[in-house]
Amino acid sequence: MSLIQWIDFQSLGDKRGQLVAIDIGKEREVPFDIKRIYYIYHTAEDVSRGFHAHKKLKQVAICISGSCRMVLDDGCTRESIVMNSPAKGLLIESMIWREMRDFSDDCVLLVLASERYDESDYIRNYADFIKAKR
Ligand code: TYD
C-alpha cells in the first residue's frame, strides 16, 4: 500500500470562490477524533521541518495556501509528494517518519491531530525509528 493516503474534501465552490468544511462526527472524513489543530506558516527559505515520527499520534495535513513537499517513510520505503491543494488532506498514520521542505513563501500547512501535544510521543532520531519499526 502506498504511504500517500489522500482524503478528498468536497470543495463547495461557486462564483464567489471555494469553501471546504470538515465535519466532525457521524460522516467524518478524518478517521480520528481531532484533539488539536496547529499550522505552520512564514517558513524561512530553505528550511526543512519535521524529522520525527510519532508512536501513537495520527495526523491529517492540509496545505491550505501555497505549496510544500512532504516526505513520508515507513522504514522500508520513502515517498515524496508536493502538497498544493486546500481540498486534499494527507493522512499520516502513527510510526511514519516525516520531513517537510520546499515551502513556498505563502505556504500555510494546517494539521489536524488525534492527540494533544506530548513530547514523549515523538521519535526524533531516525536510527531509533528504524529500531522501533523492527
Ligand atoms: P517542532 O516539533 O520543532 O515542529 P516540527 O518538527 O513539526 O517542524 O515544534 C516547534 C515547537 O513548537 C516545539 O518547541 C514544540 C512546540 N509545539 C507545541 O508546543 N505544540 C504543538 O502542537 C506542536 C506541533 C509543537
What share of the residues lie within helices?
under 10%
Radius of gyration: 15 Å
Task: Output the number of helix runs.
Answer: 1
Major sheet strand order: 1-7-4-9-2
The unreliable regions are none
Q: Main beta sheet: strand number and arrangement?
A: 5 strands, antiparallel
Overall 3D shape: globular
Q: What is the overall pLDDT average? A: 95
Strand content: 35-45%
Q: How far apart, in Å, are the first and last alpha carbons?
A: 18 Å
Please count the beta strands (DSSP E, at least 2 residues each): 10
Description:
With 134 residues, this protein is mostly beta strands. It is 6% helix and 40% strand. A hairpin with a 4-residue loop joins strand 5 and strand 6. The radius of gyration is 15 Å and the shape is globular. The structure holds thymidine-5'-diphosphate.
Précis, in short:
6% of the residues lie in helices and 40% in strands. It is built from one helix and ten strands; from the N terminus they run ββββββββββα.
Could you outline the blueprint of secondary structure elements for this entry?
Layout: E1 5-8, E2 36-41, E3 49-54, E4 59-65, E5 68-73, E6 78-83, E7 88-92, E8 97-101, E9 108-113, E10 122-123, H1 126-133
Antiparallel strand pairs: 1-7, 2-9, 3-8, 3-10, 4-7, 4-9, 5-6, 5-8
Bound molecules: thymidine-5'-diphosphate.
Thymidine-5'-diphosphate binds at residues 36, 38, 49-50, 52, 117.
